[in-house]
């Protein structure tokens, strides 16, 4: 087990004692009728093995992107924990990465875990060149030798099929698909054990989507990193993942092998989700 979450919960708003009992898939609502708070993620438990690829699907507002942001530490949970085998205390016991101090958190984000956002502007610094964005990540991991930084930046640009001649161009000079490739290069440049992807192909042309998906699948097989991918597109999930969880109103309503979930869904919502693309 490389990564796990325990009872991970995020409530937007003041919250009240009735929030969890008053929301969720059975209540068909994520808004607490008592206090008006939004229970975006509710008591989510996940376990991933090394090299495993997990897909998270659900309608808009189901909590899937919030769950990813919680795992990465972009937002703080209301309750719950995230553990990884690579973050332990002196006794060897796994530590909750959500309780890491600032230095530990930076180490986790710069070495262990990377994220690729739907909007490249969340993942790239538009004041830096393409190569500079990748170099920034490498420097944050601790590399100080200029030649090594430059060589690694160009290496990962090449891996993602970006023209090396454009390493000094700024991100806004690239197409949407190329900006996603810069994000992928940046995310992989520190050789993370865990890669998180939030709707990485949304808004791209179909031909560009296919190339990005093929690239991600190729790199995952080459480097064997664990991957969590959020998408509303079941075609993306089928193309990339081993295991799929279905979320509704902040809760996981179904989990299983991707082929099983897509070909023989058990939960009524999963059945509706799958039938909508047939």
From TrEMBL:
One of its GO terms (molecular function) is ATP hydrolysis activity. Residues 26-274 form the ABC transporter domain. The keyword ATP-binding applies. PROSITE patterns: ABC_TRANSPORTER_1, ABC_TRANSPORTER_2. SUPFAM superfamilies: P-loop containing nucleoside triphosphate hydrolases (SSF52540). CDD domains: ABC_NikE_OppD_transporters. This is ATP-binding cassette domain-containing protein. It comes from Flexistipes sinusarabici.
């Amino acid at each position: 087990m490389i990564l796990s979450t325990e009872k991970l919960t995020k409530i937007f708003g003041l919250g009240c004692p009735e929030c969890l009992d008053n929301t969720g898939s059975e209540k068909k609502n994520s808004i607490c009728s008592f206090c008006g708070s939004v229970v975006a993620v509710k008591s989510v438990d996940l376990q991933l093995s090394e090299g495993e690829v997990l897909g998270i699907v659900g309608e808009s507002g189901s909590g899937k992107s919030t769950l990813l942001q919680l795992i990465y530490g972009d937002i703080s949970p209301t309750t719950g924990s995230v553990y990884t085998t690579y973050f332990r205390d002196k006794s060897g016991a796994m530590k909750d990465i959500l309780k890491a101090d600032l230095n530990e958190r930076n180490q986790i984000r710069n070495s262990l875990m990377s994220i690729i956002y739907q909007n490249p502007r969340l993942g790239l610094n538009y004041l830096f060149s393409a190569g500079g964005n990748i170099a920034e990540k490498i420097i944050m991991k601790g590399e100080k030798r200029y030649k090594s930084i430059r060589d690694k930046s160009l290496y990962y640009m090449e891996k993602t099929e970006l023209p090396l001649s454009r390493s000094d161009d700024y991100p806004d000079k690239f197409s949407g698909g190329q900006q996603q490739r810069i994000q992928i290069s940046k995310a992989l440049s520190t050789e993370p054990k865990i890669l998180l992807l939030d709707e990485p192909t949304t808004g791209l042309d179909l031909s560009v989507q296919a190339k990005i998906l093929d690239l991600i699948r190729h790199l995952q097989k080459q480097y064997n990193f664990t991957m969590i991918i959020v998408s509303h597109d079941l075609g993306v999930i089928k193309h990339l993942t081993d295991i799929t969880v279905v979320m509704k109103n902040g809760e996981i309503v179904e989990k299983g092998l991707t082929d099983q979930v897509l070909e023989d869904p058990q939960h009524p919502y999963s059945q509706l989700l799958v039938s909508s693309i047939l």
